[in-house]
């Protein structure tokens, strides 16, 4: 979040349009969380269409959060909505946020593992 806020609030940028990616941060894990609540853990042997649709929707949010700052920076050349520096800071924030979300899902998906076994 620090990179996204810096991309918006630094005196050279002074535009808060990149902050809209926070909406994607909030919406991205929701379909997967809902689908995992209603599915079994036997995903390797029996693929579930509900979970696959949820992952597809989640990936749509992820791609949109990377595309939004790029589209804002590539708007008309004479007067872009945001500068490229703000775009790069927002993309760095996206990478960190989504790596954190992947780590969360990987960590809490391993319920059947015991910690005291070798």
Descriptive notes:
By secondary structure, the protein is mostly helical. The protein is 63% helix and 0% strand. The mean pLDDT is 84. Keywords: Membrane, Receptor, Transmembrane, Transmembrane helix. It is a multi-pass membrane protein. The chain crosses the membrane at residues 15-34, 54-73, 85-106.
What's a concise summary of this model?
This protein has 118 residues and is mainly alpha-helical. The chain has five helices and no strands.
Question: Which helices and strands occur, and which strands form pairs?
Answer:
Layout: H1 2-9, H2 21-27, H3 30-37, H4 49-73, H5 84-109
Helix pairs in contact: 1-5, 2-4, 3-4, 4-5
Which descriptors would you attach to this protein?
single chain; 118 residues; mainly alpha; Leptin receptor gene-related protein
Determine the oligomeric state from the structure.
single chain
Number of domains: 1
Q: Which consecutive residue ranges, at least 5 long each, have pLDDT under 50?
A: none
State the total count of DSSP E strands. 0
Helix % is 55-70%
Give me the secondary-structure category: mainly alpha
Shape: elongated
The N- to C-terminal Cα distance equals: 37 Å
H/E element sequence: HHHHH
- Overall mean pLDDT stands at 84
* Major β-sheet annotation: none
Report the portion of residues in β strands. Answer: under 5%
């Amino acid at each position: 979040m620090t990179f996204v806020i810096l991309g918006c609030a630094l005196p050279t940028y002074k535009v808060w349009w990149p902050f809209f990616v926070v909406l994607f941060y909030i919406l991205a894990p929701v379909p997967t969380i809902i689908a995992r609540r209603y599915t079994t853990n036997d995903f390797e042997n029996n693929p579930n269409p509900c979970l696959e649709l949820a992952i597809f929707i989640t990936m749509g949010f992820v791609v949109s959060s990377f595309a939004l700052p790029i589209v804002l920076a590539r708007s008309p050349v004479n007067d872009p909505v945001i500068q490229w520096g703000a775009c790069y800071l927002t993309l760095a924030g996206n990478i960190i946020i989504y790596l954190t979300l992947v780590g969360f899902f990987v960590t809490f998906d391993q319920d059947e593992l015991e910690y005291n076994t070798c």
